[in-house]
Amino acid sequence: MKIKVGVLGATGMVGQRFIQLLENHPWFELTELAASKNSAGKSYEEAVKGKWKLLTEIPEEFKNLKVKECIPGLDCDLVFSALDSDIAEAVEQDFAKNNYGVSSNSKNHRMAENVPLLIPEVNADHLQLIKKQDFSDKGFIVTNPNCSTAILCLALAPLQKKFGLSKLNVVTLQALSGAGYPGVASMDILDNVIPFIGEEEEKINRESKKIFGSLNESKIDSAEFNLSASCNRVNTSDGHLECINLELKEKIEKEELIAELKKFNPLKELNLPSSPSKPIVVFENDSRPQVKFDRDAGKGMSVSVGRIREDDLLDYKMIVLGHNTIRGAAGAAILNAELMKAKKLL
Questions:
Q1: 331 in Cβ contact with 301 (< 8 Å)
Q2: Distance between CA atoms of 249 and 214, rounded to whole angstroms?
Q3: Chain segment 271-287, per-residue pLDDT in tens
Q4: With 90 as the cut, is the pLDDT of residue 218 above it?
């Protein structure tokens, strides 16, 4: 029996990714779509007319689903939230209080003490925080990280686990889709790079330390390492590229670092539908990864790492790339739900 799921904020950019990724999902049946009052009552096809921005067509099975308001009463057990942060906090809590599971891409609950900020390959044990939530008998909230944080932490997870991070500097080159729709005005981004993304650097800093932190009964003790982030918006459609310099607590050879990245696959035995066979794809060709060619690695769920070399300032430097609206958003929330099902939490 498939689990019935719904999408909140179904007409936006991330909502559209959810619809695309849930087509023919082996574990989940998408039965409900919800959005603003302006869209409620329309078929999904009508609600996104002129606003569907993905290269694939709207899945046929969802075109005629009636869009509803984002209020409890939906015929499903779990909702994926792609809601704008202006309304997400209250709406997600309302669903959790009414016995819905909430797998959220919104920022509002990420840093809450009893809410997991989850990357399944990295901190699956943090799911135990659900037991400390008291929304209702069956209701809960689980979040995935900010897109740039998700890509960064997945790439560094095997190094943090084996050797420990001491210092980390990251410069991001972030795609336009990360700003949503209509996003950045064309006259601002054409022939340009914008060296500021509001709150992004702060999110990377605090979210990374929670993700790499240790579970301590009812809360997470943040990991201790120095992190500096600089975030830029660039004129690419999808795919965040990150230039990383890092210092490890333990001194290692480059070959050992590469070997740890290549063998990392902690979810292999669970056979989760959205889990890639290689969470980290390592390139030893200096010209890769590139956004155009590598953002869809592992159907958008893998991160790619290349240009690994020694650093005169810290220990090593590298390039990391990931798909921001799949691994960094909708795909991440779906993988979180798959892990919860595998752990019998759904």
A1: yes
A2: 17
A3: 999 999 999 999 999 99
A4: no
Domains of the chain: 3-146+329-342 (3.40.50.720), 147-323 (3.30.360.10)
Q: List all residues 6 or more positions away from 54 whose beta carbon is below 8 Å from its beta carbon.
A: 16, 17, 20
At 62-105, the pLDDT tens digits run 999 999 999 999 999 999 999 999 999 999 999 999 999 999 99
> Burial letters for 251-281: b for 16+ Cβ neighbours within 10 Å, e otherwise?
eeeeeebbebbeebeebeeeebebbbebbbb
Asked if residue 321 lies in contact with residue 244, where contact means CB atoms within 8 angstroms, the answer is: no
DSSP per-residue codes, 123-162: HGGGGGGGGG--SSSS-EEEE---HHHHHHHHHHHHHHHH
Q: What average pLDDT does range 220-242 have in this prediction?
A: 98
46-67 per-residue burial string, b: 16 or more CB within 10 A, e: under 16 = ebbeeebbeeeebbeebeebeb
Choice among 147, 153, 231, 323 that is catalytic:
147
Question: Which residues, at least 6 apart from 120, have a Cβ–Cβ distance to it below 8 Å?
Answer: 267, 272, 275, 335, 336, 338, 339
Contact present, 181 and 54 (Cβ < 8 Å): no
Answer whether 139's CB lies under 8 Å from 102's CB.
yes
Kindly state the tokens that stand for 325: 């609206």
Give the pLDDT of residue 122.
98
- Active site includes 323? no
**Per-residue exposure over 225-237, b if at least 16 CB sit within 10 Å of its own CB, e if not:** bebebebebbebe
- Whole-number average pLDDT of the chain: 97
Q: Which of 109, 126, 240, 323 is catalytic?
A: 240
The answer for residues whose C-beta is within 8 angstroms of residue 344's C-beta and 6 or more apart is: none
pTM over cut 0.90: yes
Within 8 A by CB and 6+ apart from 187, the residues are none
- Residue pair 17/325 in contact (Cβ under 8 Å)? The answer is yes
> Which amino acid is residue 89, in one-letter code?
E
